[in-house]
Amino acid sequence: MTETAGARAGARKNSAKGSNGIKVERIYTTPGVHPYDEVTWEKRDVVQQNWKTGETIFEQRGVEFPDFWSVNASTIVTTKYFRGAVGTPEREQGLKQLIDRVVLTYVKAGKEHGYFAADTDAEIFEHELTYALLHQVFSFNSPVWFNVGTKSPQQVSACFILSVDDSMDSILNWYKEEGFIFKGGSGAGLNLSRIRSSKELLSSGGTASGPVSFMRGADASAGTIKSGGATRRAAKMVVLDVDHPDIEEFVETKAREEDKIRALRDAGFDMDLGGKDIVSVQYQNANNSVRVNDEFMRAVEEGTEFGLRSRKDGSVIETVDARELMGKIAKAAWECADPGIQYDDTINDWHTNPETGRITASNPCSEYMSLDNSSCNLASLNLLKFLKDDDTFDVATFQKVTELVITAMDISICFADFPTESIGATTRDYRQLGIGYANLGALLMATGHGYDSDGGRALAASITSLLTGAAYKRSAELAGVVGAYNGYARNADAHKRVMRKHAAANDAIRTMHTMDKDIHRAATKAWDAVVKVGEKNGYRNAQASVLAPTGTIGFMMDCDTTGIEPDFSLVKFKKLVGGGSMQIVNLTIPRALRKLGYTEETVEAIVEFIADKGHVIDAPGLKTEHYEIFDTAMGARAISPMGHVRMMAATQPFLSGAISKTVNLPETATVEEIEDVYIQGWKMGLKALAVYRDACKVGQPLSDGGSTAKDAEAGKAAAGAEAGETKVVEKVVYRPTRERLPKRRNSQTTSFAIGGAEGYMTAGTYEDGRLGEVFLKFGKQGSTLAGVMDAFSIAISVGLQYGVPLETYVEKYTNMRFEPAGMTDDQDIRMGQSLVDYVFRRLALDHLDFETRSFMGIHTAEERQRQLETGSYAPATVDSDDAEAIEDEIESYSQGVGAASPKKTAAAAPAKTDEVAADEAGESEDRAGEVNFGAGAASAREVSGDVHSSAELLEKFQGKSADAPICMTCGTKMRPAGSCYVCEGCGSTSGCS
Fold this sequence. Notes:
Blueprint: H1 3-11, E1 41-49, E2 56-66, H2 71-81, H3 95-112, H4 119-134, E3 138-140, H5 142-147, E4 159-161, H6 168-183, E5 187-191, H7 211-224, E6 226-227, E7 232-233, E8 235-241, H8 247-266, E9 286-292, H9 294-302, E10 305-309, E11 316-321, H10 322-336, E12 340-343, H11 344-349, E13 374-382, H12 395-415, H13 421-430, E14 433-438, H14 440-446, H15 454-482, H16 488-507, H17 514-537, H18 551-556, E15 571-575, E16 581-585, H19 588-595, H20 600-613, H21 641-651, E17 662-665, H22 671-683, E18 688-693, H23 705-722, E19 747-754, E20 757-765, E21 771-778, H24 784-801, H25 806-813, E22 822-826, E23 829-832, H26 835-847, H27 850-855, H28 861-870, H29 881-894, H30 914-926, E24 940-942, H31 950-958, E25 975-977, E26 980-982
Parallel strand pairs: 4-5, 5-8, 8-9, 9-12, 13-14, 17-18
Antiparallel strand pairs: 1-2, 3-13, 4-13, 6-7, 10-11, 12-18, 15-16, 16-24, 19-20, 20-21, 22-23, 25-26
Helix pairs in contact: 1-3, 3-4, 3-12, 4-12, 6-7, 8-10, 9-10, 10-22, 12-15, 14-19, 15-17, 15-21, 16-17, 19-20, 25-26
């Protein structure tokens, strides 16, 4: 018997006998068949590099994964979750070992604590849990994968809330407890409002330091501790009540540090995130939030005074203008994205345990809100796995999986270890859980729902209601088997009141389509059972659901979108087996277009357009009323700030906790707009809200040019010292120089007409053919328009002569829309969205090479005709072996068989002769071997070497750098996930789940 089989057999022994346990129902599995035997396994080499330095940061060869797992998923799981030193026999070698390590620990604990009615229920539980994890139906949070089944402490919680009192002992203990939590791979939050302000006296007669001063020490500690064995940096949340006398200092803390970053950067210091000089800046390791109450928000609305209260006796020691204070909060958030807002009265109105204590804080990502000194175990379901081939949502399976997962999550508390005794005691007494989901954005798009639409919100609300209703239904059933949580009796009336509030909110959902009607019907039935069974048994868990960022685990499940977020962009960066990468159009797009009734030819044309442009604006044949379905978090059709707020408001009434999500605003957003977002969030019943204005964080790197230049300079100095040279310190300032055109130069004049208006463009070139000047004649001589065109021409010409690449101008000015616009007389550019759109498309065709303008989607009429005839824009002279391989790769995507349903196995494939199989294997290897990637019309193409993630790909389409941090592990540009960031190169996150 193998070690794995022996462990599995051992886990089935000594099951609790009798009929008082849970009866586990089969969902996916077949009696007598283990889930591992239903899939095809393959071995892969996982090699991970920091693309900037070229350094290999991880290497493990021959790891075993199912063939339908993406390269990214297998890489992230291998590097993040496999335990044991690489190269030793103890190192895990495949997904089976990882899943068995976790699942068998859960099964063993479930049997020991009487969860199952019989041995057969334990076996079904094992198989169903294994199947769901194997097929990426759900995932536990990262600490489960780090710790469960290892010799390390069995820390299973991702989120912790601490407490601190107004004493030095308590403050120093806070530092210590945070350190232990970070070390275990998790994040912590706490409220500092009990600490006396700097405006109050100490018992010794001196003045108190105030909470902001103590934040410095905690921030420094967090900055030096890597959590979970270098899995990610420490994540933390600091909260201060709005009536604390130091609230203004707290509000402006991080904004003032941003001023410092800006000044130091301009002085030449390396202030990139992770740069050697950034450590001199304080308060950068925490998210800050202001805890506001209804009294303050009403004072803001009415423009009245608000009292700041002593921490010692609650007396008002200072009054401020509430509207002015809210303005300062919004201004600080405008400057640096901090602080966020937490709505205290709303949070505590939905609190199931008010007799034990108030909810004062949250975890770092603001989705877990519960008692002080507590923790929460998270898990998330992959919503797209429940969308069937006929585009209906599998309601019954979704509910069954929710009940299966919530059972497993509760079992984990039985064997879990905790960083402190007080956290362990509170968690075991209240058993807070946080089931949630990922891939909502992809599900909405695939089913033809706009993210910011009534239909989209109705579907999201119904799904969230069923999720929490099914979770609490199972919690009530578990209470009848293994007992209610210890704190239930004390809080029974409050808990039951909150259950009725959830049920009432469910009744208020207004469904719009068959899909959400079916889900809502099941949710209503679940909430009826919650109230009835809970009245009899009580509940096993004080909390059941949150919406977490799902950063790393989202990649483990191959999700297109994280948490409650919309799709990040329509074009994705995709790694291929055996190396290499491609850009592909999001595979949910063709599915959505077919559901909307578009013909196959139109679907292909729209997908090809998206592959070129990165957006759907003016896509051929796409109705404008369908644009909203393809709106994204970033890009040309970014979802409006209030669109994010409205989605949060639709789902919030059906969550025990809150939602990890950031409301994105454009760089042009005003302080007043941010203030309005905060006020609307309060009115809509949210529990917490964070904002991010594009480009507000000057400390987030857009490139590593500064540090690279310094490293090179340092290397030269060291080399000179070794050679015995005298060290000369010289400051070198690099400035662009203007390269003027020769007195006599070649030029070409083009006449054009756009939207009925006529003009002339003259383009002058250097002797080597480079473009050096542009002059536009448009409008009557002496008119304002003619003068503006002359000034614009001079500006562009001077920029070209100072070295600004033409492709930069093309990226910036194409797709600008204003009149005159419309048909042109140019056969290569039949439509122009504006004068400058036409001009720079013409310049691109005349002066840029094929590869550069092809990436921008700018082709001649001849090239477009060639694409229709041969499938390639490239002329025959470019048809090299490499180009042919790329075309083969694209063809393999466009002819894919679609994402496999969970039950699909290798046995379903038709038999092949050995010769055919060998030929196909060789072809697959030549094409980098990606399997099972898409269902038709998913345009794929090679990615340029300077793109390493979807965030960097989006930069190419937008023509500007994304405002996001660089991953400190692999150097890839990260992208938002909830209120955190996640790296799709290596799975590192800036958050806690």
